[in-house]
Amino acid sequence: MSTSTPWLSNSFPTSSRLDVDSSALHSSLEGISLSESTLSESYNDSGHFASFVTLVAGLERSLNNEDPLFLDLDIWLSSNRTVIASGASSRVEKVGWNSGNFKGKYKERWGNFVALKYTRHHTDASRAIVNWKQLLSEVRALLHEPIRYHPNIVRLLGITWGAVEGMQSNFPALVLELSEMGTLAQLQLNSEESLSFDIKKKLCLDVAKGISILHACNVVHGDLKHENVLVYPNRDTSASVKYVAKISDFGGSVMDLGADDFRSLHTPTRPWLAPEFFSSNGMSEIELKLTDVYALGLLVWRTIVDGQNPYLPLHSDAEPMSDSQIYQMKCSNELLDLAKEGVLHLKLGIGSDGIDTLHYVFENTIQFIPSLRNCYDHAHRSYASRVALRTDATNCT
Ligand SMILES: Nc1ncnc2c1ncn2[C@@H]1O[C@H](COP(=O)(O)OP(=O)(O)O)[C@@H](O)[C@H]1O
Ligand SMILES: [Mg+2]
Fold first, then answer.
1. What's the pLDDT tens digit per position in 46-55?
2. What is the pTM of this model?
3. Which residues are in the Protein kinase domain (predicted)?
4. What is residue 120's predicted lDDT score, i.e. its pLDDT?
5. Could you tell me which of 258, 310, 265 has the C-alpha nearest to residue 290?
6. Are residues 207 and 91 in the same domain?
7. Which residue has a Cα nearest atom 22 of ligand 1?
């Protein structure tokens, strides 16, 4: 299968919408919901670096019985690294633990290698503020306890600094649990054969559970897509599906919205973006959450079509649709019809119950009118039971 998918990497910085005023970092620190009292005592506005250290130290203290979050790059991690991904705003490398260090239990628990995520250096000062803000959002989301220990969220193992070849980054790097399998996009696009429907369903369910915990903690992901879902081996070796999906990349996440606050998304990716983004200057927390729900529906659709571009006209060899065509189809709800009709043409072997489930998922997610995205199951505080597994709802929490 082709892995050339330029249309997928259509991430666009919405700089005009970014709130890049100089108080951004300060206010994001002030609004912290974790260890607030500890932090407010020690925080002072002495620069991004110091603010960041103060913030993480406070979060570290709030996590009981954990190893230190600050890791010395030279001591704990090997200098032998391989680049996994290199984008406009970050670079991710695979790196091993240094042999002989006392991180033996890390190795045992998280494997021989970790992923190091570096933020790129920008000379433009306003861009640097945005980078700090995104880094803070990512760290705060990943260290918030209910999110940190959730099986469908990537685990942040630590934070480090160090010189990186070819990068002038003075930003801290995140040490993350490495996925050897890569993203959901890589898993699907590199597989010779389609994943079975059961595997696809389980992976979508995992993502829905991850979104559920984020929303329960009032965190909006803001850039949900295949490239931000990592796949790991299932630690439960007796499980019928050998994979676990975990949501990653929280740089675009939005949090701390009060009842009267309105915000935009920072780093959405156009093909997976809910249409109302373009007609609003700011959205409430519930409205922002509903953009994640829209993206979740699109993720389910793309998973069903093996990670390929789902926006292909059904009955022709025409080129993939342009951004504006996709937008028009989202606004007219033709996209919903395309998704529903599309799965009828695939030989999924899932019977009418399976098709009904998919139609139900699409009808309750990729709706133009946000209030019709009715897939939150209040009884279970979860999207999972309705979105991914309507037929096995009793198994879901
Ligand atoms: N923990 C990880 N394990 C393996 N690959 C990763 C990991 N984290 C990120 N990547 C790879 O790096 C890419 C970029 O990382 P991401 O966190 O999405 O940052 P960006 O903000 O640049 O999109 C991902 O799409 C994925 O291919
Ligand atoms: Mg990403």
1. 457 777 777 7
2. 0.85
3. 78-383
4. 84
5. 265
6. no
7. 90
